[in-house]
Amino acid sequence: MTDKSTSKKTGSGNSDSGTAEPYSVAKKGAPKKFLFQLRSRDNEFGISEETFVRLMEELALNQTELVHKALRNLAKEVLPAYAPDDGPLTEKQHAAIRKLSGLDISENDLDSPLFK
User: Is the alpha carbon torsion for 11, 71, 16, 35 positive or negative?
Assistant: First the structure.
């Protein structure tokens, strides 16, 4: 089952074996399209046409909307929402916090989860 709006193959995807191929992101222009191949049966890396149709009916979505919804949910689950920070504060940073706060902050206070 193919969605006519996404029948042109210009990107890469997973083969039936589940191995990923490199994929480059376009800088400008129209969004890329890709061919989506359903599996003969449901498994960890794909779903069958029967399951795909049931999901479309249950969610009242077309093929493209369903794929986007599934990928959006996966992105929220897997990709970090923000860039990683620089790690724990240094002793110099702790000293600056103590000095700027004007409060008497002890080492025990710095062990608070608020400073981690």
Answer: negative
Q: Is the pTM of this model over 0.90?
A: no
Query: What contacts 72, CB < 8 A, 6 or more positions away?
Result: none
CB-count burial class (<10 Å; 0-12, 13-18, 19+) for 103: exposed
φ, ψ of residue 5 in degrees (nearest 5): -75, -10
Q: What is the DSSP letter of 17?
A: T
User: Which amino acid makes up residue 16?
Assistant: D
pLDDT per position as a tens digit, 74-112: 999 999 988 888 889 898 988 888 788 877 767 777 677
**CB neighbours of 105 closer than 8 A, spacing ≥ 6?**
97, 98
